[in-house]
Design brief:
- By secondary structure, the protein is α/β, with parallel strands linked by helices.
- Helices cover about 40% and strands about 25% of the residues.
- It has a 7-stranded mixed sheet, with helices on both faces.
- Helix 1 runs parallel beside helix 2.
- The radius of gyration is 16 Å and the shape is globular.
- The protein binds glycinamide ribonucleotide (GAR).
Length: about 190
Amino acid sequence: GHRLAVFASGNGSNFEAIAAACADGRLDARVVLLVCDRPGAYVCERAARLGVETFAFRPKDYVSKEAYEQDIVRMLDERGVELVCLAGYMRILSRVMLDAYGGRIVNIHPSLLPAFKGAHAIRDAFEYGVKVYGVTVHYVNDELDGGKIIAQRAFDYTGADVQELEAMVHAVEHPLYVEAIAGLLAGRNR
Ligand code: GAR
């Protein structure tokens, strides 16, 4: 099977969706490393429960982003990682990661890109008052949320409950991300 790494900063529901798809055979792959920039994040508990090796680090313990990314790249190289899946990793990658893994890094973003880039896409779209929401899986390049689109899924929501909306976004994200990764590993979706 293929060898994946997931990068996450928070809750980790997308990480768990990917790991579960590996476990039940929907993905012919294994998550060989979780990278997390917040050692207390819930995603680290999920990884421990699922037996996924974790590199959790504090950016402040390093002199620079390039320095911690050099450590990450070494770990990815050592484990033969083929595809890096960002899943709520709330940091912009530097040249170190992009030079080493460019073209093999994908991200999930909770809006229909190119609308609502950035860290607060669901809230921004909700406050804007859109009636069609969605999710995007895309390649990562040096433009924020700007890489080539791999997959998108849209849904209608006209309610006024942002928590209900967030739950709907996550429910769309999990299968879309798994299907997009499956396509990439099978050589489709390019
Ligand atoms: C997801 O909704 C993901 O799309 C979003 O963070 C959430 C992480 O949830 N990513 C971004 O906003 C990136 N700009 P999770 O930790 O439960 O997977």
